[in-house]
From TrEMBL:
Membrane among keywords: yes
Annotated compartments: Membrane
Organism: Plectus sambesii
A Pfam family matched in the record: AA_permease
Cross-referenced Gene3D superfamilies: Amino acid/polyamine transporter I
Top-level taxonomy: Eukaryota, Metazoa, Ecdysozoa, Nematoda, Chromadorea
Entry-linked InterPro entries: AA-permease/SLC12A_dom, SLC12A_fam
PANTHER family linked to this entry: SODIUM CHLORIDE COTRANSPORTER 69, ISOFORM E, SOLUTE CARRIER FAMILY 12, CATION COTRANSPORTERS
Transmembrane segments: 55-74, 86-115, 135-159, 180-199, 205-226
Domain of life: Eukaryota
UniProt keyword Protease present: no
Keywords: Membrane, Transmembrane, Transmembrane helix
Segments forming domain Amino acid permease/ SLC12A: 58-228
Protein name: Amino acid permease/ SLC12A domain-containing protein
Amino acid sequence: MVGRPGDTPMGKDNDAYLESQDDEIKRQISDSSSFDGGVPFQQQNDESKMIKFGWIQGVFVRCMLNILGVMLFLRISWVGGQAGLWYGSAIILLSSLVTSLTALSMCAICTNGVVKGGGTYFMISRSLGPEFGGSIGVIFSFANAVGAAMHIVGLAESVTHLMKDSDTAIIDNGTNDVRVIGLAVCCLLMCVVMIGTSFESKIQVLLLFILIASLANFVIGTFLPLKEIQIARGITGYDCK
């Protein structure tokens, strides 16, 4: 520690004392230079080596894939047919309100500190405590597993319907085909996850382009001439009459 001015010795030892104080100050400066805001440089180097995807691959792509999921492709039309245009729109608006409030709450939690590894679990455990965070984290994990199973079954059913339209089948063009296709898709997704998060992020970008192409195909397909089977099912297309 640096001595007080009153403790400075007088006489011929004054120069030696000043040199010792200079050495002490240099040592303290050298010790403090290894920290930046209380974080050691070694820890900063370790954090710089972490894989960071940014807001496009880490946030935008993942959110768009969740929005443009199996519920949008397979159940929006069913909701519109069962509830009608107005009630169906009301259901979508209420769902959007719930998700918007949840997103705003998460934004408020994120601005109170740095979000480390763990994502949602980290924020919940730091806000509500480790007990609530642990229980909600377990439920969140099961919800992701069930959601993945739902998306796999939805994809398998869609492929089965396409195979039925082309008069092809794996086993019986029914439940067994859904099981076979679902098992194959599940194994493929497991391989993607086991390769690594960086590869999984690149696959998500590819899937997003496929979803955008499917939406564009849906819009463009409305302008194509109708087939007889479509007319028999009640599809009229655009009509100004």
